[in-house]
Specification:
two-stranded parallel sheet, 9 helices, Rossmann fold, 7-stranded parallel sheet, 309 residues, globular
Length: 309
């Protein structure tokens, strides 16, 4: 029996380390399309291969990319850092130009998948305080809001070429590495605390749960359009930071003031770090999969237990 082939752009990254093993267990062949090979081991599994590509430049005409069943498009420059003109250009181009080039490549029937699933981000909503947000809410007016709007528009072009198209507006993805990995050293030194006031809402989802949603979206022909992928109960940043400090057995100290963040990262990125997004998903209940990680305290206790401290 011919196994279905899934191509994952950016599959060597944080989310890929959860998604690739899951898809292999489900019987798919996996092609990772990325600038660097995956760092995680696969014990010479012949069902996985790697094709090197920088999507902002071109997409290779490689025989390993022929006749795919599905694409999962995760590529995007890490936003963390001072918003210099150069950094902002990399953030924008990696998402918009990279996606544009990829969709143009997939117009060729030899490379066209049946389903195209694109990553997106809750950054599209900007800072909206205590307003309850969902898939149909108004967008923000920040730099990242515009980036995500343009990113989604490029992704939706896949529909023009017969691909069932799904977009996941992802909350902060928590797991081994990623956002938690970046914060862990600060908390381990006893310097962990909420950013800004700590009252801002923090939308999140575990990498484990998100990987399962991607896998189901591949196989469910009725899953289409935009889905906000966040846990059902919004939390405030101070709840998260308090739970993380407690799980690490470290003190939870005073908040990091916005002016200090601005001094370190510049005003524009400091504002992005402290936006408030109180988000629920009206469409996520369409999935059969039910999120397993919904309590931030229980989840962080489990994550810390698995960390190599």
């Amino acid at each position: 029996m011919h196994r279905k082939k899934i191509v994952i752009t950016g599959g060597s990254g944080f989310l890929g380390s959860y998604l690739v093993p899951l898809l292999l267990r489900q019987g798919y062949d996996v092609v990772i399309l990325d600038q660097v090979p995956p760092r995680y081991p696969y014990k010479k599994d012949t069902r996985i291969s790697f094709v090197k590509a920088r999507l902002t430049e071109s997409v290779p005409h490689d025989e390993r990319l022929l006749d795919p069943y599905g694409y999962i498009h995760l590529v995007g420059k890490n936003i963390f850092g001072r918003f210099t003109p150069e950094h902002k250009k990399e953030i924008y181009d990696s998402r918009i130009i990279g996606t544009h080039n990829l969709i143009n490549h997939l117009k060729d029937p030899r490379y066209t998948p049946r389903v195209f699933i694109g990553a997106s981000a809750v950054g599209i909503y900007g800072d909206q305080g205590d307003t309850l947000l969902s898939e149909v809410s108004d967008y923000g007016n920040t730099f990242l809001s515009q980036v995500v709007r343009d990113w989604e528009q490029e992704t939706l072009r896949a529909r023009l070429y017969g691909m069932r198209t799904v977009i996941f507006r992802q909350g902060h993805i928590l797991g081994k590495g990623g956002f938690l990995g970046a914060l862990q050293p600060l908390f381990m030194y006893g310097l962990g605390g909420p950013l800004g006031s700590g009252n801002q809402w923090l939308p999140w989802i575990s990498a484990h749960d998100l990987a399962h949603l991607y896998a189901e979206a591949l196989s469910r022909h009725d899953i289409e359009g935009i889905y906000t992928t966040v846990t059902p109960t919004p939390i405030r940043y101070k709840e998260f930071s308090r739970a993380f400090a407690r799980a690490l057995h470290r003190p939870h100290i005073l908040p990091t003031p916005t002016w200090l963040l601005a001094l370190r990262f510049g005003k524009e990125f400091a504002r992005e770090m402290t936006v408030s997004q109180r988000i629920v998903s009206h469409r996520l209940p369409q999935f059969d999969y039910r999120l397993q990680d919904t309590r931030i305290d229980v989840f962080l206790e489990k994550q810390v237990a698995e960390m190599d401290l």
